[in-house]
Task: structure prediction
Amino acid sequence: MLFRDWTKQLIIEELKKKLSVESIVESIRKASLDGKVAFYPCGKYTRQILKEIRKRDPALLDKVVGCFDKSSQAMSEPGTDVYHLGKLDDFAEEISLLVIASSTYYSRQERDILENTSYSGSVLKTSFFDYSMPKGSPEILLSEIKRISGMLYDAKSRMVYIISWLSRVLNDEDITSLFESENEIYEICDDTIDYKGYTIRGIADDELKKELFADVYKMRHVAISKGDVVLDIGAFRGETAIVFADSVGKTGRVYAFEPIKASYEIMERNIRDNGLNGIIEPVNLGCSSRIQTTAAVSSEGGAPWTFISDDDGSTPVELTTVDEFVSSNTIEKVDFIKMDVEGFENDVLLGAKKVLQTHRPKLAIALYHNSSDMVTIPDLITEMVDYRMFVRCNMDGPYGLTLFCI
Result:
């Protein structure tokens, strides 16, 4: 049996074991008969489970003691108390179930609990990887995986794609060690990074630092050249825009989109302090399928506490479309688009159809936020333009999986 065939067989076996949302809520309900329920960590997935509880069994929320997290910036659903993880032991006697609602691999949260608490009670582990799977039976999903794999241009893409699915379905982060960068990844304790002679401030998240030094968007078939015009959609604090500016040089241009005002202002400072005003144009807008004013959850630390959400957000943000921005600013060419927008990539692509068809830019699209993105994004791009598609991952862990198109 070939490796890819064995992998697909294992994937379908594991998919059949996954808990549905209904099963998760029912497990919480049963545990609540014997005590309180706690969640770790705070984040979008914990919020989503709490929303499901509110929808299906609102009275059950009275049995939630709170959400725990290591971050002082952690937030959760309104009405749900938030505590530092170190406080979990204070509630241990009344907790009948601890729900680990991981956004990625729950081995990370298991390690946190072991290292920071003495909790030894019942645990339910669930991952956003499972929650965000494409709809349908395991057999249908496996068929979709095979179909998308067949659309990819080279054997390496197909293997990276299938291995990424395997790591998600098994919830096994060790599998991603195959993608570990050969670059030196510097350990930096503060939020200021020195990168190729540039000083980049405001990057406190360790994963963002790793992405930077791992060259997540470096791909030999889909490279940025001198003089290129780049759209950096999801620029955060300008770290990737600075990388791109270094590649396009003084004859190129980088439009860096960041809708959250606090992050945008830090990006402006990073651009100014590095003398890149003539290359990078900061844009205090997000991108979407339509022009609109919406809201975002915002915090100083950025993801996972910063994301666009009409339901949960309180910070107003303005969104445009790629097509409208390029047209209204009379941008004559677009050579490269990078897109990493916390799971809204499909929506942004819908507003970029004309640019993709007219300019046919190279693409680097984050493929790791929702499991369903690994099917829907390649499909959506193929509907618009006949690209050659590659999948690469230049770093270990849950992030970095990227769809490159040329």
User: Anything to note?
Assistant: The first strand starts at residue 36 and ends at 40. Residues 220 and 404 are 10 Å apart (CA to CA). The chain has two domains: 19-131, 182-366. DSSP finds 14 helices and 18 strands in the chain.
